[in-house]
Each structure stands twice: as C-alpha cells, then as structure tokens.
C-alpha cells in the first residue's frame, strides 16, 4: 500500500475521531451512533498501520490493489450506514405521524368536552 495512502488513512481516522469526540461532548450525536464512527476510525488505523492485512484480503478477494480494497470497504461500510440511517428516519417519520394523529384526536376530544360544558 502506498505510503501516502497510509498517511491519509491515519490522518483521516484521527480527524474523524476528533470530530466524533467533539460532537459527543457537545451532545450533537448519541454515544451509540458514535461507536460506529470510532470503530470505523479504528479500522482505518489498523489498515494503515498493518497494510499486510489489506494486501492479504485484496489478494484473497481478487482485487488488483490493496487501495481498491480499502476504497470498496469504505464505500460498503458507508452504504450500510446510510441504509441504517434511512431505516431509522422512516421509523421516526412513522412515529411522528402517529403522534400528530394522537394530538389531533386529543384536541378534538377537548374541543367536544368544552362544547358540552356550555
């Protein structure tokens, strides 16, 4: 693996780790979500420090170069993360719709109770 790619992976992982720690500290991200990014950063560091892993896996899986393997791995992890986020967003949208309907029904019931009290 090229030395510049190794350096880029380490710098990128360190920057990601600092960003995540800062976001957790400012309560912009939940700790459970930050675990993914911390593990992702750790994976990048492991691949940068021990490039033999990337060479071995790229040979095993038929990639022409370890850099291609690293890029595909990063893209695959981001796609999995995006799918999980889309799933969470869909669930939250459904829950918001349910809550809005419950609030509307409660307000309607309170309005009917006021009309009966006249």
Automatic annotation (TrEMBL):
It comes from the Bacteria. The keyword Transmembrane helix applies. The keyword Transmembrane applies. The chain crosses the membrane at residues 6-24, 36-57, 63-80. Keywords: Membrane, Transmembrane, Transmembrane helix. This is DUF2304 domain-containing protein. It comes from Granulimonas faecalis. The lineage of its organism: Bacteria, Bacillati, Actinomycetota, Coriobacteriia, Coriobacteriales.
């Amino acid at each position: 693996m090229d030395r510049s790619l190794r350096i880029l992976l380490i710098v990128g992982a360190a920057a990601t780790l600092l960003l995540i720690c800062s976001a957790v500290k400012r309560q912009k991200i939940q700790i459970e979500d930050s675990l993914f990014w911390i593990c992702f950063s750790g994976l990048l560091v492991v691949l940068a420090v021990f490039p033999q892993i990337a060479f071995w896996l790229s040979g095993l899986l038929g990639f022409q170069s370890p850099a291609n393997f690293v890029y595909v791995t990063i893209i695959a992890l981001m796609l999995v993360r995006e799918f999980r986020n889309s799933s969470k967003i869909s669930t939250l949208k459904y829950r918001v719709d349910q809550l809005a309907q419950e609030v509307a029904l409660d307000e309607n019931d309170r309005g009917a109770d006021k009309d009966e009290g006249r």
